[in-house]
Amino acid sequence: MSANTFVSITMQQGAELEKRIRRLQTGSETAIRNTVSDFKSRAPGWVSKGVRQHYAVDTAGVKTATARVTDTGSSGNSLAGVKINYRGRTLTLTHFNMSPKQAPTAKQSKYVRIPGQKVSTGSPVAMVRPPKRYKVKATIIKGQRVEMSGNAFVANGLPWKRKEGAQRKSDVLHTLSVPQMISGKAKDTINQLINENMEKRLEHNINQVMK
Question: How far is 192 from 203, CA to CA, in rounded Å?
């Protein structure tokens, strides 16, 4: 006659696992809240890094934009509701490695007569040596050094462009704004940086509440 044999197996770490699950239940809001806080403080740096991977803008140029972090969650505990709004003016070439930074002082070798001036025979009064011609260059998109049009010149450290027509005036040359760069070539890179880093911060914050 055979006899039944019984064996009882106990989950040795069961109590500890239950504690961890309960800590996760009670600490999930804390983990999310801390991750939202991480986004607010760290995301502008990730955005700046993404922009500068594609554009040759200097740090000062990036800082001209205003970054405002908003959270549509009721108490800062919604990862889906947090976002950054950027506002900024278009930047001049001075933020993109412009050269020359000042108008060159070199003169052309030949003298020219000033238009509209009457010159007596042998008098050099109305003859001048114009400034040497030069091109204003800048690197806006990384790896692409470009020349501005022939009407571009530098005065008081800023790039200008002469207008055509009878009433010729000059306007400061502007390029892109930081918001345009964010939504342009840098868009995919910025999204990737934010997603990767936010996953790391969420995992870190979950591990903290699970301890």
Answer: 17
